[in-house]
Amino acid sequence: MATSLLRIFHAAFQNVEIRLLQAFGLHPPPGPALAIPGCHHPLQGSQGSDMTEPSGLSSLLGGVFLMAAPKHRQSLERRHKRQRHPDKLIKPKENLFPCPECGSMMQEGFLCINCYQRIKYETDIIRQKIKETETDGLASTAETVVRYADETITESDKSKRVIEMARKKPHWFTKDMYDEHWKTS
Amino acid sequence: MRLSLMLLITHGKRQRKLGGGKPQRLNILRRVVTGLVRHERIESTYAQCDEAKFYAERLIDYAKLGNTNAGAMRIADYWITEKDLIPKLFETLAPRFAEHDGRYCRLYRLPVTTQNTRDMAVLEYKGNPYPSLRPIPKNHPNSIANILVEGLRQDYEKKMEIDMKDQPAA
Ligand SMILES: [Zn+2]
């Protein structure tokens, strides 16, 4: 205990002595803690003695623009307050309900994606058939009606363009899925 | 220009921006309206569908004036870029909506999923030959739950009738 204290005091007094000697110019000054030697080309130095190359830190960072950087680390509390604020969490959706057709969950104000994929597949087939009937890619002026293999067309549809489908009607494609109810409402 | 409460709140900035300027916006809208006239049901982003719906409905209003009207033909010539669709507009779509006023289009939003990350929508003219996207809700009179509830209701009505007959006598 006593020896360690003595050692510390000895080191401190030595430090004070050196500083005092430095103040009176009797001791060489200490060098920089992180000294970076400048790159001197021996050939260049011998040829042009009047051209003085920048040496040290300024030559290393020549032309580099230094940006501002954070001086201190943010505490965990501050970081968590910013990152885990209740406003930044994903909010649970309250407007979900099962689709009346297929039963998968759908959002209010949106289409059921399960039903839409099924209808889109059928729509694309019908669209492809319509494209085949059109000569030279010119659009027809007649109204279109789709007839499946197990169906008969009514009297009112005879003036329209009939798209014949070779296969049977899908079981989900019921009669009220024809776009007729918009006329009454 | 649409006059509405929303217009008052938003200081006249009702339209959303499409593309990078006025000509590009009109080109996008003309492309969507032309596709709608050809296919009668299209899928595009919600912003484009919502903006084009207004113009598609006004186009039908002009088409109702007839193909002899010079103004209507000029409007149709501007908005339909593929010219084989102009007879279809005047001879098919205009008679279809002859007895109707205003709302000729339907707009449905598609849900945003991991596959479909853009906000998409479906725009269609009414009376198209495709299966309906929103069928009418159906009653199921033959399902077991509905049969039981119907029987319970009939029993309850019978019981109430007997009670009403008994009360005056007592
Ligand atoms: Zn569904």
Automatic annotation (TrEMBL), chain A:
User: What protein is this chain from?
Assistant: Large ribosomal subunit protein bL32m
GO biological process terms held by the UniProt record: translation
Q: Does the keyword Ribonucleoprotein apply?
A: yes
Q: Does the keyword Thylakoid apply?
A: no
> What does this gene product do?
Component of the mitochondrial large ribosomal subunit (mt-LSU). The mitochondrial ribosome (mitoribosome) is a large ribonucleoprotein complex responsible for the synthesis of proteins inside mitochondria.
State the coiled-coil residue ranges. Answer: none
One Pfam match, by short name?
Ribosomal_L32p
**Known PANTHER family for this protein?**
39S RIBOSOMAL PROTEIN L32, MITOCHONDRIAL, LARGE RIBOSOMAL SUBUNIT PROTEIN BL32M
**UniProt GO MF annotations:** structural constituent of ribosome
TrEMBL record, chain B:
Q: Ribosomal protein: present as a keyword of the record? A: yes
Gene Ontology BP terms: translation
Protein name in the entry: Large ribosomal subunit protein bL17m
Sorted alphabetically, which PANTHER family does this protein's record hold?
LARGE RIBOSOMAL SUBUNIT PROTEIN BL17M, RIBOSOMAL PROTEIN L17
What molecular function does GO assign, one term?
structural constituent of ribosome
Instruction: Give the family from UniProt.
Output: Belongs to the bacterial ribosomal protein bL17 family.
Q: Does the keyword Ribosomal protein apply?
A: yes
Q: Which UniProt keywords apply?
A: Mitochondrion, Ribonucleoprotein, Ribosomal protein, Transit peptide
Q: Where in the cell is it found?
A: Mitochondrion
Gene name for this UniProt entry: LOC118424088
Q: Name one GO cellular component term.
A: mitochondrial large ribosomal subunit
